Amino acid sequence: SGGFSGSFDLDPGLGNTILTSGGSMDAFIGVFNLNMMPLAAHAISGTMDQFGGIFHQTDKDEIYLFGAFEGTVDLDLSPATNFFLAGSTNDGYLLKFDTIGNYQSCASLVCNHNFIYRGITSDTCGNILLTGLFTGQLDCDMTNGTFQINSNNTLSDALLMKYNSYGCSITGLADYIKPEFIVFPNPAKSGSNIVVKIPELIEDVEIID
Q1: What's the sign of the alpha-carbon dihedral 97, 165, 121, 85?
Q2: What is the sign, positive or negative, of the torsion defined by CA atoms of 52, 207, 149, 64?
Q3: Residue 204 class from Cβ within 10 Å (0-12 exposed, 13-18 middle, 19+ buried)?
Q4: How many whole angstroms separate alpha carbon 167 and alpha carbon 180?
Q5: How far is the C-alpha of 122 from the C-alpha of 59, rounded, in Å?
Q6: Strand partners, 139
Q7: Which of 5, 11, 127, 207 is 20 to 30 A from 196 in CA distance terms?
Q8: Are 116 and 138 in contact (CB under 8 A)?
Q9: What predicted TM-score, i.e. pTM, was given to this entire model?
């Protein structure tokens, strides 16, 4: 995954797999076989910039892409459309694919100021864990409900979010987008400034139930 503007050929061989951007910077997703032949290619297009994000494959061979977008973006990579409007400088998105790169579903994290994605992983039950940074107010519920948290200063607060799989019933992204727990620091209660940094890889974080 990555970002591009204009048009480019995602096929490194003699074939052509052309993607064309619709905004100033679009994100792209490419899935290849062992011979580097493209199995699937998608562009995430919108009115402003989209960012390619981080891939993760679960133990159940489901593939997720965790990234960010600005402005209005169509996150439905099928022939249908599903438009999302960012409530801030950057909002987060979560896309789900099968093992050969076919799009399955999408959801977004809405922030009224700024959200930065950092990492994604999963446990053996298929629960999805996301890390990121945010300022302002963030709605962590990617369903039609709300679960809002607020940062405690003008700097970015770090957070860890877990989305449950409702008893490991893997039927679609809706199984993951209700937050089971959210952890974020509260410097306002510390009496002094605290700087929390999320590791580049969420695997570096030890999670104790």
Answers
A1: positive
A2: positive
A3: exposed
A4: 12
A5: 8
A6: 110, 148
A7: 127
A8: no
A9: 0.76
User: pLDDT, tens digit, for every residue of 2-60?
Assistant: 888 888 888 887 888 888 877 678 888 888 888 888 888 888 887 887 777 888 888 88
Burial of 153 (0-12, 13-18, 19+ CB in 10 A): exposed
User: Binning pLDDT at 50, 70 and 90, where does residue 207 land?
Assistant: very low
Which residues neighbour 157 within 8 Å (Cβ) at sequence distance 6 or greater? 133, 134, 135, 151, 184, 185, 187, 196
Mean pLDDT across the stretch 146-160? 77
Q: Which amino acid is it at 155?
A: L
**Amino acid at the residue 169:** S
pLDDT digits (tens, 9 = 90+) for 114-130: 888 888 888 877 788 88
Asked if 59 contacts 122 with a C-beta cutoff of 8 angstroms, the reply is yes
pLDDT by residue (tens digit) across 157-201?
788 888 875 433 333 444 445 556 566 655 444 444 444 444 444
Residue 130: closest CA among 65, 48, 195, 49: 65
Question: What CA–CA distance (Å, rounded) separates 116 from 113?
Answer: 11
- Residue where the block lists tokens 């997720």: 64
